[in-house]
Sequence to fold (107 residues):
Amino acid sequence: MPKQSAPGELAAIAPKLVEVTDNVLFADVWERPGLSPRDRSLVTVSVLAALYRSEQLGYHLGVALDNGLSVEELSEAITHLAFYAGWPNAMTAITQLKKIADDRSAG
Fold:
């Protein structure tokens, strides 16, 4: 998987936020040996969907696919969390997953 980083254009307005995102979150937390990148992606996608953080969700759905999760596995996780996090959250997440899956299969 390519190294993750915060969007570079944000450095102009929030250089410290980009720095800690890159150096702490992505270079440290995401690289810890306790969970695989695949498992970290599943946790991240689940939390973002459950908390209705749709702006970040699309990016992390793509990362999850890159980290080895399948569309079917992500769909199953989203279906499961519908009962715990709410139907609208799950419908938003599954709509984003479908778009990403469609874009990847067309490309």
User: Anything to note?
Assistant: The mean pLDDT is 94. The longest helix spans residues 87-106. The CA atoms of residues 5 and 23 lie 9 Å apart.
